[in-house]
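Protein Entry — a single chain follows
Next Lines — sequence and tokenised fold
***
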Amino acid sequence: MKIAHFIRRDFLTVNPYSGINAIKNKLLEHLAIVVQDDDGIFYGVLTINDLAHNPKTLIIDCLTIKELIDGEECVEATLFKMETAKTDVLPVGKNGKFIGLVFKNELYKYISDYNIELENTIKERTAALEEAISTKDLMFSIIAHDLKSPFNAILGFTQLLKDKLRSLDFEKSEKLISGMNTQARNTYNLLEDLLTWARDNSNTIAFNPVFCNISTICDVVIEQVKDMARMKDISINSFHSPEADAYADKNMAMVILRNLIVNAVKFTENHGKIEIYTMPVGEFIEITVSDNGIGIEEEDKTKFFKSDFNESTLGTANEKGSGLGLVICKRFIDRHQGKIWIENKNEKGTTVKFTLPIYKDEIQSS
């Protein structure tokens, strides 16, 4: 930056013949004074240091020679000249004529403020970069987590077909192949949805709440996981209040429900059942995913929602997971100002409940 921005023109001038004591008194109130005679001829700049070094000489004789520097000089070059000349102030000229003063403390303050501003900018950009990396990591985790279950179903179908192809009749083989085709198509559609969402949220996961019919979203998710449930002969039923419309981000709601239903399938034994139902509770929709599976220990009911806990428990059919499902659910539910919690049923099984804001026409249209 040029020092032209720091030139001070409101300086005090003094006649070189004013007398040493008069000049000393003026210097006590100012960091420097400009020495000019009655005709306005510029002699130089006088500082307290100048008088301290030569207190008994004539003012004109004791002036430290300070060359006029050009206002186009940069701050760094001017500070270097001040350090070399051991002075805190330099006169600034234009076309060889004196126009003002520039002070070291003001240049240092500018550099200090600039460095602080630069540090803050770096911190902000670093934080933004870390957030972008974190978002990408989360998106990859969601994609990987949500695709594992349908691929497990496809692998199960192919393994069954491989092991029993010779003993299966044509009708059963056709049913298995049809199931594989349906699951593959659902998985492809799911992958497309997830990748589209990831592209739309490459830097930060956008939060776009809209009218969401939970019943419709639930039906879509059940269709995506039904083959996985069918392999364990698990029934999935859903019941929804006609008032169960949420004001939520549709993609996030689907991710939450998909994770919870997949978990229920994972930890439910063969011939089990899963129920999903919704009901309005005050300003929120309460959504419940209930199963009659193996349940969760009381002391473990909160740790699954913590980001530093990524242990994965094997399912009843040795299904593997990433340990991220409930962490992702809580993060998305928090964005909606909702809550998620786990309840153990009196008999065996687990009930997971979460809340999303209820949709109200009068609020959304205002």
Observations:
- The CA atoms of residues 294 and 349 lie 5 Å apart.
- The domain at 207-366 is CATH 3.30.565.10 (Heat Shock Protein 90).
